[in-house]
Each structure stands twice: as C-alpha cells, then as structure tokens.
C-alpha cells in the first residue's frame, strides 16, 4: 500500500453516515476534477461546518493523476484543520467499475469506494459487490453498492432509462454483500439533461420509505441529484454557451429525502455548471484574459457559494461539526 488514508487525515464514511442518520441530514458528496474545484468544496464545507465526501470518478482520477489525487485530499484536510474546523473528510471512488480499480484506489489512499454492479443481474451484482466489500473491509475502507439503474450520462456511466430499485430485494442484497451503504434508483438522473421543460420531476419517496422500513438505519445514497440551477444555465448561455432544456431535481424533494434514511447525496453537474458559468463570464467580459488565476478564481467562488447554499437548503448539514474561521 502506497498511502494509507488514515495517515492522510481522511475518514471513512461509517461514522459520518451514522451521525447523519441520527441527526436528520445528508452528507454532501461533491465530485471534483481539478484543484480549484476541490478548493471550492473544502472551503464551502469548512465554513459551513459540514462533513464532506470528496468524490472522483475513474475518469476524473485518470485526468488528475492517481499519484496526485490523495495529496489533494490530504491538502483539503489540512485546510480545514488550519481554519479550526473538525469536519471529517472522505475520499471516495464514484462508480468504480471493477475490483481491480477498487484495489488500486485503496492503495492510493481512498477511504471509501463504490462498486457499480447495477448493470449486472441481481445475482452477479451481489457477487461483485461482496468481493469488493470483503477486500475493502480488510483495510477499514467503506463500500457503497448500487441496486437499480439511473438514466442519464456521467463520464463512462450511460443508461437509457431508469429501473427503480425493488424494495423486496434490498434486504437480501445488503445481507449477502456486507456493503456499508446502498445507492438506490428512485427517479434521480445523471447529467444536466434530466428532464424537459414542462416536466414535473418527482422522486419516488414512497419507494424510499419502503426501503427504509425494510432496512431500518441502513445508509441510503442518492446519485444524480443535481438541481441544474437555472441561474448558471442562463449565465452560460448569455456568455456564448449552449445548454438548452436542462432541468434537475427540485431542492425541496431532496431535502425531504435527506431527513429520512438518505445519508449521502451526490452532486456533480451543479458544480460543473457553476464553474463553467464563472469562466464564461470572465472571458465574455474580458476576451483578452489569459491568466488562469483570473478565470479559475471566479469559477471557484461561484462553485463555493452555490455549495454553501446547497448545504443549507438540501443537505441540512450546516453546523454538524465545528465551523471554520
């Protein structure tokens, strides 16, 4: 093992989820693809006193560099501590494709991993998820699996339609795999183009309630939960972009979910939109700008301020831990 996550100051998600479930909030799981996005996330969560899961997909890890990712996460912890905050920080693999990738991530300091066997049969999903859980638990790394399929596109994850999680399968899946949390499909969707104008997005809180009844106290995860804020879509389009008919999940529905068994909510697209809006605005106002600090800085601030707002309105995790200076 090259880097042990505990030596990097990171936490796994077990105690984070326990605290979240007991106190009626969800832990923000924010994806990042570069240093500025990571800074936006950790600054927002430090200032709000919110625990955080720093997520990278296999594609993002390849883009950043697997040798670099653990030290960005370590730097995030160091930043929070320097501000007097005690928020726990996890480094999580989002949509891990196989055991080989999971092993490599654990070797490089990840404290939490997801194995996405949702495209397999129920029996095969149990098999691959159990293999990952058995391996990861040797290193005290927490494991997330997925049951059901979300429509949409996120990096290499592509699905044409949603297949809702079947509540009558969750008990068997959880007991046979030994995973620590379960991502379910109840109507959320990957990407920016979740719904069309005129749609009335509704997540299936009835399915969530039945799952919660069957596996009480077990941490549930929602993927594809970006709200696709209209203000950033508008800003992008006003400054040369072309993002049409993009509608996300209403914040109030996600807040209802976070008050129940949902311990983790994933957000990626919203951060991308905020970041891109900041960059496009700078270039539209000053086409001659070529200093990366002058356009990545404002992009980071848009992302940071939006996530602070979302911590309050969606996750309910503000003040769960000590706020930073």
TrEMBL record:
<dbReference type="InterPro" id="IPR000771">
    <property type="entry name" value="FBA_II"/>
</dbReference>
<feature type="binding site">
    <location>
        <position position="191"/>
    </location>
    <ligand>
        <name>dihydroxyacetone phosphate</name>
    </ligand>
</feature>
<dbReference type="GO" id="GO:0008270">
    <property type="term" value="F:zinc ion binding"/>
</dbReference>
<dbReference type="Pfam" id="PF01116">
    <property type="entry name" value="F_bP_aldolase"/>
</dbReference>
<dbReference type="GO" id="GO:0030388">
    <property type="term" value="P:fructose 1,6-bisphosphate metabolic process"/>
</dbReference>
<feature type="binding site">
    <location>
        <position position="223"/>
    </location>
    <ligand>
        <name>Zn(2+) 1</name>
    </ligand>
</feature>
<feature type="binding site">
    <location>
        <position position="190"/>
    </location>
    <ligand>
        <name>Zn(2+) 1</name>
    </ligand>
</feature>
<dbReference type="InterPro" id="IPR013785">
    <property type="entry name" value="Aldolase_TIM"/>
</dbReference>
<comment type="similarity">
    <text>Belongs to the class II fructose-bisphosphate aldolase family.</text>
</comment>
<dbReference type="GO" id="GO:0004332">
    <property type="term" value="F:fructose-bisphosphate aldolase activity"/>
</dbReference>
<keyword id="KW-0456">Lyase</keyword>
<keyword id="KW-0324">Glycolysis</keyword>
<comment type="pathway">
    <text>Carbohydrate degradation; glycolysis; D-glyceraldehyde 3-phosphate and glycerone phosphate from D-glucose: step 4/4.</text>
</comment>
<protein>
    <recommendedName>
        <fullName>fructose-bisphosphate aldolase</fullName>
        <ecNumber>4.1.2.13</ecNumber>
    </recommendedName>
</protein>
<feature type="binding site">
    <location>
        <position position="95"/>
    </location>
    <ligand>
        <name>Zn(2+) 1</name>
    </ligand>
</feature>
<keyword id="KW-0862">Zinc</keyword>
<comment type="function">
    <text>Catalyzes the aldol condensation of dihydroxyacetone phosphate (DHAP or glycerone-phosphate) with glyceraldehyde 3-phosphate (G3P) to form fructose 1,6-bisphosphate (FBP) in gluconeogenesis and the reverse reaction in glycolysis.</text>
</comment>
<feature type="binding site">
    <location>
        <position position="146"/>
    </location>
    <ligand>
        <name>Zn(2+) 2</name>
    </ligand>
</feature>
<dbReference type="GO" id="GO:0006096">
    <property type="term" value="P:glycolytic process"/>
</dbReference>
<dbReference type="InterPro" id="IPR050246">
    <property type="entry name" value="Class_II_FBP_aldolase"/>
</dbReference>
<feature type="binding site">
    <location>
        <begin position="266"/>
        <end position="269"/>
    </location>
    <ligand>
        <name>dihydroxyacetone phosphate</name>
    </ligand>
</feature>
<dbReference type="InterPro" id="IPR011289">
    <property type="entry name" value="Fruc_bis_ald_class-2"/>
</dbReference>
<keyword id="KW-0479">Metal-binding</keyword>
<feature type="binding site">
    <location>
        <begin position="224"/>
        <end position="226"/>
    </location>
    <ligand>
        <name>dihydroxyacetone phosphate</name>
    </ligand>
</feature>
<feature type="binding site">
    <location>
        <position position="116"/>
    </location>
    <ligand>
        <name>Zn(2+) 2</name>
    </ligand>
</feature>
<feature type="active site" description="Proton donor">
    <location>
        <position position="94"/>
    </location>
</feature>
């Amino acid at each position: 093992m090259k880097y042990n996550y505990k030596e990097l100051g990171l936490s796994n998600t077990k105690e984070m989820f326990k605290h979240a479930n007991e106190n009626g909030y969800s832990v923000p799981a924010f994806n990042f693809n570069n240093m500025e996005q990571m800074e936006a996330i950790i600054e927002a969560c430090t200032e709000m006193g919110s625990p955080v899961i720093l997520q990278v997909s296999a594609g993002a890890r390849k883009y950043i560099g697997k040798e670099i990712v653990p030290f960005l996460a370590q730097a995030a912890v160091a930043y929070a501590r320097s501000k007097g905050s005690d928020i726990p920080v996890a480094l999580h693999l989002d949509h891990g494709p196989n055991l080989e990738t999971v092993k490599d991530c654990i070797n490089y300091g990840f404290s939490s991993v997801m194995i996405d066997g949702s495209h397999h049969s129920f029996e095969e999903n149990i098999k691959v998820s159990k293999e990952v859980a058995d391996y990861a638990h040797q290193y005290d790394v927490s494991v997330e699996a997925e049951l059901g399929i979300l429509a949409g596109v996120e990096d290499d994850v592509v699905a044409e339609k949603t297949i809702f999680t079947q509540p009558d399968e969750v008990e068997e899946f959880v007991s046979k795999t030994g995973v620590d949390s379960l991502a379910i499909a109840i109507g959320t969707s990957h990407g920016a183009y979740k719904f069309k104008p005129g749609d009335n997005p509704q997540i299936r809180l009835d399915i969530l309630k039945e799952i919660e009844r069957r596996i009480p106290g077990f941490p549930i995860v929602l993927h594809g939960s970006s709200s696709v804020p209209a203000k950033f879509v508008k800003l992008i389009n006003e400054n040369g972009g072309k993002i049409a008919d993009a509608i996300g999940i209403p914040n109030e529905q996600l807040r209802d979910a976070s008050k129940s068994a949902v311990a983790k909510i994933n957000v990626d697209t919203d951060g991308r939109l905020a970041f891109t809006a900041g960059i496009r605005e700078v270039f539209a106002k000053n086409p001659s700008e070529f200093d990366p600090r002058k356009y990545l800085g404002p992009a980071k601030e848009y992302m940071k301020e939006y996530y602070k707002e979302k911590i309050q309105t969606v996750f309910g995790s503000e003040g769960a831990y000590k706020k930073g200076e």
